[in-house]
Structures are given as structure tokens and as C-alpha cells.
Amino acid sequence: MYAHKPNVPTNNSIMIEMMKSTQRLFCSLFLLVLVTVQAFPQQQTPNVVLVYFDDLGYGDLGITGAVGYQTPNMDQMAREGMFFSHYYSPQAVCTASRAGVMTGAYPNRLGLSGALDHRAQIGLHLDEETIADILKANGYATAAFGKWHLGHLPQFLPRKQGFDEFYGIPYSNDMWPNHPTNKNYYPELPLIENETVVERNPDQRQFTTTFTEKSLDFIDRNKSNPFFLYLAHPMPHVPLFVSDKFAGKSGQGLYGDVIMELDWSIGQIRAKLKELGLEENTLVIVTSDNGPWLNYGNHAGSTGGLREGKGTSFEGGQRVPALMSWKGTIPAGTVCNNLASSIDLLPTIAALTGASLPSKQIDGVDISELLRGDFSKYPRESFLYYYRRNSLEAVRKGDWKLVFPHPGRTYEGFSPGKDGQPGVAYENHFFEGGLYDLRRDPGERYNMRGYYPEIEAELFEIAVTAREDLGDDLTNSPGKNRREPGRAAE
Ligand code: MG
Q1: What is the Å distance from ligand 1's center to 173 Cα?
Q2: For position 19, what pLDDT does the model report?
Q3: Residue 72 and residue 62 in contact, taking contact as beta carbons nearer than 8 Å
Q4: Considering only 38-47, 56-65, 277-286, 318-327, which range has the smallest mean pLDDT?
Q5: What residues contact residue 33 under an 8 Å CB cut-off, 6+ apart?
Q6: How many whole angstroms from 432 Cα to the centroid of ligand 1?
Q7: pLDDT, position 11
Q8: Active site residues
Q9: Which domains does the chain have, with CATH numbers?
Q10: Do residues 108 and 390 lie in contact, with contact meaning Cβ atoms separated by under 8 Å?
Q11: H-helix or E-strand containing 334?
Q12: How far is the CA of 55 from the centre of ligand 1 (A)?
């Protein structure tokens, strides 16, 4: 008969058991992964949306005192995120400001100043690393819509600076044949898709709508992967244009209508992020490149009472409103009074996404602690106010600002413009300078020179260091660490 077969596993049964347990292990792992994915649906590094308005003033939002119209979407963003009340443009003019925000460096470090036009043979050097460059290297989809202004030649357009796609204008929207004081000096304004001109003198009434729709489409297309959207609205820079949706809607005329449409744009983008479930994984930043162009009168914005405006290193030129939201990370309804600047965005975004910092020296600092609501931290202690190529016109530390004697633009005492025609802005006014306490005197009216010698000495020391590093035309200091812009001939 059969001999008792002891229950000794054969090689085959061992194999079968091993396969079964491996299957069980894989099943368990799969379930674990599934549960983890469902519990933490957004483990990817955050998306970044940066909206950069053109010439929007500090006082142009409902929450900063706008008169005659409402900005419900931006006010809502402030309630759900953070408003920065001491936030600075890198420099108070278009090209320079954009060079700063894109690279995290003072624009004069990069050899860029003023506003490049259609004759410019320079642009942002391709060796400079932009926010788009460092995020693209980490697998982000990147897009720029609206105004570029860092070199109009094809070799300087956004796709050469880290962006996958571009749709917009190469420089300001007033650089066209209808310029109010330079008639027929500028060629027809090109609308460019990537590097191809798709239209000349496009209907500017559609700008805000079109660039918003491009942005919504980009977000839709990239909802499943990390993305960086740079929406640089050409408005509210003159000439002002608004679509039929908002024409005549404000009680304040065309300027108010334009701001209402820009506010609508912010609402559209935030609604899209909500619809796609991306609110908790997207940092949204809304700010302006510089203060209002005051000599355009009723077509200019408001500084909210700050001194002077665009093209000056006074607060009305440099201090801009800034809103940031990121559900679950940025505490809702907070106001950050600590010093910060758009040059801080690149290092902050790098810290939040794990992207590498540029290899070249930059000036921005990581302000992510502020975004998380820790206002006991002061990542940025001082700010340098440069304007007119490489003139160090003022320095700020803490509450104090020391303004050096300098020639500059003033809007005071001259007739304002009207309905798109500029009034006079005197370009060579001599400012005596002064020491101002921005806590008590945000309007820079009361010169405190001589009353606080220790504070003055400290601010002077910051200027001495800055002159050695970046140079200063006012004191004929060349500076050791300035770089060249990109040149067409190279
Ligand atoms: Mg501007």
C-alpha cells in the first residue's frame, strides 16, 4: 500500500507558496499605495501661479482703499491668504522689475534697467537662470502669457528662458504707432506665439480676456503634473483697454473698469484651481511690476498715499500690493508687515519645490517662513532702492529709509494728463534726500536727518557695502559683482 508520505514540502510546493506570498505582498503593497494616494492626493511639489500686473498701484485694491470700484476676487484672496503690506518691486520700471522677479537678483546686477523698446539689442542674458528654468529642470510644465519685456529679439523670448510656451507681447502695450507723444515712432505692436508673430496691432480690448483664457487652458492641460504659470497682464499700463464685459461697469471710468476686469481674471484662475482640486497644492502670487504712472491722470492708478509713483525710488514707485494664497499652508486672512520683495520669489519657490538655486549670485532671500505665518522671522533685513541705471538712491532697514541726494522724476507740481494723454513728469528734479520713519511716515514727508545718528550710520554702512558689491553711479562706484546683459551680437 501506500507508504505514509510525510508532509515534507517538495520544491514545487515551496515555489507555489512563495509565489502566493509574493502575490499577497504585492496585493498588500498595491492596496497601501492606493490608500496612501487617496489619503494624500496631492503629494507632488506645489504648482506656482505668478500674476504680474503692469503699473498697478499700492492703493488700487478694495482692501487698500480703492475708490469708485470693487475688487471682490482679490479681496477674497486676501481673506483666504496673505496680504503683504511692505512688499517691494525690484525696481520701479517694467524691464528692470521683470528681470528682478524672474531671476531673484537686483536688475542692475544683471545689467538691465529702464524699459527696453523695439530697437533694443540686448535682453536678459541666457546664462541667467529664471524661475521657469529652475522649475523646468524639476519637471514642471512652464508657460508665460502676456507681456515679456526682457528682450524682444527671438533669442531672448521666453522659450529661451525656461518657458515651454509663450503667447503675448514682447514689450509694453504703448510701444505702438498710436503712442500719444511719439506718434509713429514705434512699429505695429506684435502679438507673438512662441517665436512667431501671429498678429500686428491686435485688439487690446481682448488682452485681459485672452491671456486669462490661455492661462485657464494651460492649468487644465497640466492638472496632473506640476506647473508654473507666469501671467503678466499688460494692463493697467496705458493705453487702457477693457472688454465689453466690463466697459462702463465701474463708477470710476476706464481705469476702474480695467481693474475690475483684472480682478475678474484672478477670480477665474482661483475658481479653476478650486474646480480641479488644486487649491491645496498651488501657490498663487499676485503683485505688480511698479507703482502707478501718475502723469496719466485719470488713466493712472493710486499709490494709496505713498510718495511719487512709477519710475521713482520713493514708496509710490517701489511699494506694490502683494497677495499670496495656498490653502492649508498660508494661514487665511493674514497680513505680513515684514519686509519682502519680488526678488525673494525665486529663492522662496526653490525652497518650497526643492528646485536648485541659480549658480550665479542672487539677492533674494527665502521668505517661506513668512508664508507659513511665522512673522517673528525677518528673512529680509534691508532693501536697496536703485533707479536710473545704477544709482543707489535709497536704502531701507527695519522701519527706516535713508534717501540719498539724487536727480529723479517727480510728479509733484505738474499738471496731470487726461483720457490717455500724459501730463508732464519732470525728469530731473533734484531731491535733497532724507531719513524717513516708514512706520510713522509712510508718505516720506518728515525728514529726520540728524535726530537718529546711530540709525543713519547703520543705513550708511549698508550703502557702503552695496556700492562695493553692485556699484553706484551717484558716487562713481563701479561695483565688483555686476554682470552683463545678453547682447544680440553674441
Ligand atoms: Mg510697469
Answers
A1: 10
A2: 55
A3: yes
A4: 38-47
A5: none
A6: 26
A7: 54
A8: 94, 149
A9: 47-380 (3.40.720.10), 387-487 (3.30.1120.10)
A10: yes
A11: strand 334-336
A12: 4
